[in-house]
Amino acid sequence: MSFKTQALAGTKPEQYTQLLEQAQALLHGERDRIANAANLSALVYHALPDLNWVGFYFFDGNELVVGPFQGLPACVRIPLSKGVCGAAASTRTTQRVEDVNAFPGHIACDSASRSELVVPLYQGDALLGVFDLDSPLPARFDANDKAGLEAIAHAYLESLA
């Protein structure tokens, strides 16, 4: 299968609509969580500006373990009680952090990261993991990013069903 990305255009919500369509096309017909996480990480990392890390952490029954990602090598294991990823997983709510240095218990895997957005991935009541994005810019993520990335995370979960 050959997949072609297209440059995003228009307002931020319009760009996320286009990115979601690309993500759904990329995930279509594939149910493997690793394959889909790998391709989705690459798609988002290359489509959106000002990101230095995009990837997945999967819950192993005890803690979050790094999965497919784009960016510098990452922390391998994250307890549910630590960091932005742990907060998203344990509270079941997307965490949008404008300044990671002001976040209690932040784990600095990449010292260049200044802001972060983490979407929890649940299938029913079962924690699958988190979808994590980091930026070297403070306050990189706004409400449009949150909504757009939650929709992409939902498309990922739907692809596994």
Task: Characterize the structure shown.
The protein has 161 residues and is of the alpha+beta class. It has helices spanning 12-27, 33-47, 83-91, 143-160; strands spanning 53-59, 64-71, 77-78, 95-97, 115-123, 126-135. The chain has a 6-stranded antiparallel sheet with strand order 3-2-1-6-5-4, sandwiched between helices. A hairpin with a 2-residue loop joins β5 and β6 (126-135). The chain starts with 11 loop residues before the first helix and ends with a helix.
Compact summary:
By secondary structure, the protein is of the alpha+beta class. It has four helices and six strands.
What characteristics describe this protein?
161 residues; 4 helices; 24% strand; alpha+beta
What is the rounded distance between the termini?
A: 21 Å
Radius of gyration: 15 Å
* Overall pLDDT: 94
User: What is the structural class?
Assistant: alpha+beta
SSE series: HHEEEHEEEH
Uncertain runs are: none
Physical arrangement of strands within the biggest beta sheet? 3-2-1-6-5-4
Shape, per Cα inertia axes: globular
Care to count the β-strands? 6
Estimate the helix proportion, in percent.
25-40%
Report the biggest beta sheet as strand number plus sense, adding barrel if it closes. Answer: 6 strands, antiparallel
Strand portion, in percent? 15-25%
Number of helices: 4
